[in-house]
Amino acid sequence: MNRIAVYPGSFDPVTNGHLDIVGRAAQVFDEVIVAVSKNSGKQPLFTIEERVEMLNKLLTPYANVRVGSFFGLTVNYARLHKATAIIRGLRAISDFENEFQMALTNKKLMPEVETIFMMAQADVSFLSSSVVKEVASYGGCVGAFVPALVEQRLRQKFNKNDQ
Ligand code: ADP
Q1: In the structure, which protein residues have their CB atom closer than 6 angstroms to any atom of ligand 1?
Q2: E-assigned strands of the chain?
Q3: What is the pLDDT of residues 37-61, one digit of tens each?
């Protein structure tokens, strides 16, 4: 049986924390679909196309990982792609409440899909896209937090915004 997992998120932009989780998921599942959610409540920095493009470039080393995007419910996307699992990363305790609620809601909506939580390696587990954006917006170095491609794109965005 081909075990497919969907890893949904905003990925605005992808960080080394996200990539750590993708690497773990790719070892456990036959196929992983990293799915960029189009329904972010927050004003995103990168467009969906930019986020998908960065992910595609960064995830080429993984033969069993592909990138997609979706609008609406994660469970509908999972059903469409015959996924049996939704991957979520857990950082600090602060993630727990939201994730707990979402996992149980999704279980009600689609009982045949399981939410699997993974924890990133300690040195990247504190990272969030919003902190990375904040540091980059003030000209701080984010080289330890994101891949070089993302660092470069962040620099371009904030330089452009300054003009
Ligand atoms: P969302 O808006 O759906 O939370 P994010 O892009 O912020 O989208 O996160 C997508 C998933 O990746 C979430 O499950 C989040 O907890 C997880 N994640 C993000 N950063 C990290 C990290 N540094 N370590 C572990 N998991 C992470």
Answers
A1: 9-11, 15, 17-18, 21, 88-89, 91, 95, 120, 124-125, 127-129
A2: 4-9, 31-37, 65-70, 85-89, 114-118
A3: 998 677 999 999 999 999 999 999 9
